[in-house]
Amino acid sequence: MVSTGNPERMWWSKDTIALVTGANKGIGLQLARELARRGLTTILTSRDESSGRKAIESLLEEGIDRERLVYHQLDITSPDSVDALADWVSRSYGRIEILINNAGVNSIGVPDLEQAKYVVETNYYGTKRVIEAMVPLLKPGARIVNVSSKVGDFSYLKNEWNAKLEDIATLTPSSIDEMIQEFFRAVEAKEIKARGWPCMGEEIPLAPPEILAGYSLSKIALNAYARIIAEKLAREKEIFFNSMCPGSTSTAMSGFKGHSVEIGADTAVWIALLPPGTPEEPLPHGRFFMDRKDVGFSQMPVFYDGQFYKTLGDLPKSK
Ligand code: NDP
Questions:
Q1: How far apart are CA 40 and CA 273, in angstroms?
Q2: Measured from the CA of 30, which atom of ligand 1 is nearest?
Q3: Neighbours of 106 (CB within 10 A)
Q4: What are phi and psi of 298, to 5 degrees?
Q5: Cβ of 251 less than 6 Å from ligand 1
Q6: Active-site residue (options: 71, 125, 215, 304)
Q7: Residues 109, 214 contacting (CB under 8 angstroms)
Q8: 251 vs 25, 51, 95, 151, 182, CA distance in Å?
Q9: What is the C-alpha separation between 296 and 153, in angstroms, rounded?
Q10: Which helix (H) or strand (E) is 58 found in, with range?
Q11: 198-239, pLDDT tens digit by residue?
Q12: Pocket test for ligand 1, best of 45, 49, 105 (most atoms within 8 A of CB)
């Protein structure tokens, strides 16, 4: 049984430190807004310093308390940038309670090797790098939330990796690396579909089947990693790590089609702020949520504006 706790029970204070990646715009900016508004000390990070600082200014203009917002640069693809952030957090606060991994890139079109590597390096390896750097700063009871996607649904894999990812007792980060290398070989050979890699374009009329293959594989890898690491973190450190999909949300990434960022950010904020668990009703970990519901890692629905749909092709036209 997953605890959803009492949503009204406010356990946090200004001494609760939350960090959001890719928070200069889109869903990340909304996440920072929601957390700072509720009074947590929120570290807004962005790869480009000037757009991050502008984002802070816009939140201050909305009336958010200056004391609740802190800026730090973070490019998740740069080991130096990630290390510098971890070092600064350690010296400034000594800990964080909430880490929201939101930063990500899309790659639309049948990917070539360069595009596939770019999207996987950012969405998977970049996020993994941030988690590894931050885990030593997370104390028992801390939460990690990955802003992931329905495109990371394991059932898009039509090869042996589908079953391998489901076998969480044997799956390791090195097997995920192996899967990625195999995918890259298929991209190079132009055999994405033939070798059973994600072809979610099949759900969208007129799109080439491989249209989102790189983005999809990056989120599949991320979801698989989150699921296995969540087990370990819960067992060894009492850290609660979950993933979510914001649904089709109007941001730069989606060409500003979709529901509001308020709806897109809601589930991540909800998971991050769930009240502490109890022995009878522990906090969830290793789950995948959409619209505050545990939807699993395979055969997920598509979420748009308060409703679930079966496939991307079922979304209302123009969304
Ligand atoms: P945006 O394009 O608006 O925001 C993406 C954010 O990630 C930006 O702040 C961007 O920075 C940042 N970013 C990209 N690369 C890096 C990097 N190397 N280091 C640090 N930050 C980086 O898109 P969304 O708000 O829509 O996306 C947020 C998350 O939501 C993503 O993980 C996405 O995959 C996920 N998502 C979005 C959906 C949607 O419909 N919008 C649906 C499902 C999932 P910069 O401004 O510098 O580019």
A1: 10
A2: 25
A3: 18
A4: -140, 145
A5: yes
A6: 215
A7: no
A8: 8, 15, 31, 17, 31
A9: 9
A10: helix 49-61
A11: 998 888 877 899 999 999 999 999 999 999 999 999 999 999
A12: 105
